[in-house]
Amino acid sequence: MNDSVLACGLAIHEVSMRPKVGEQHTLEILEAIEARRDVTQRRLADQLGVALGLTNSYLRRCVRQGLVKIQQAPANRYFYYLTPQGMAEKSRLAVAYLRSSLGYYHRAGESIGACFAHCQAQGWRRLVLAGMSEIAEIASIRAHDFHIEVLGTIDLGSKVDVFLGRPVWTTTGAAPSCDAVVFTALAEPIALHSALLAHYAPDRVLVPEILRSVLDTPQPHTA
Q1: Most CB within 10 Å of its CB: which of 33, 43, 91, 100?
Q2: What would the pLDDT profile of 181-213 be if each residue is shown by its tens digit?
Q3: What is the pLDDT of residue 20?
């Protein structure tokens, strides 16, 4: 067991699970063009959440790859068309994205499950989550499989009082007594992690392996 943090779960890094940013943007561009051929570059930029110049760069790359064709219209407007190759690439990227997303949730569930299995072996039943996120949602669901009671969630920057039907505390001191804390934060994880270690015994702060890359802290496997 690590002296500072008990890390448990599978050796998987969250970053490696997600689709590449460039592929995500390409898929969104192809889907937007398929839905509306007179879509503007500015609208695409807003949809992708990137600069207009970067959107132009992505579009040019799609054209070079033979995925999109451009036809000029009156008043300096442009129509964009998906080529057959573009249609095939859109389908491929959509399937890859779906598989990656489903795989991410599956691996997250397995990682959280490993934490809960450790708690079960230690006789720890009353747990608190740390960080409102999709990982916390998965933990809330998986807790039923291990007969574990989730008391609520600690989230330092929360603007809400309830999450997943349970209370939210904005300080570690406000949370009730519990057997252990399961780290589930994706937003500002370092600050929350430090606050947890300042309040709880280090061996009662459980970090699922899937979140190691978020903390960027090397941790050994649980024995």
Answers
A1: 33
A2: 999 998 888 999 999 999 999 999 999 998 877
A3: 55
Q: What are the tens digits of pLDDT across the range 87-119?
A: 999 988 887 877 777 788 888 999 999 999 999
21-98 and 6-16+108-215 share a CATH fold: no
Q: Give the whole-angstrom CA distance, residue 189 versus residue 214.
A: 7
Q: Which two tokens stand for residue 214?
A: 């978020």
Q: Specify whether the CB–CB gap between 138 and 132 falls below 8 A.
A: no
> What kind of fold does domain 6-16+108-215 have according to CATH?
Rossmann fold (3.40.50)
Q: Phi/psi at 10 (nearest 5 deg)?
A: -100, 155
Contact 178/189 with Cβ under 8 angstroms? Answer: no
Beta bridge partners of 128: 181
pTM exceeds 0.70 for this model: no
Asked if 111 and 12 count as a contact pair (C-beta separation under 8 A), the reply is: yes
In angstroms, rounded to a whole number, what is the distance separating the alpha carbons of residues 83 and 96? 20
Q: Which tokens hold the place of 199?
A: 């309040």
| φ, ψ of residue 136 in degrees (nearest 5) | -65, -40
Give CA–CA dist 112/139, Å, rounded: 6
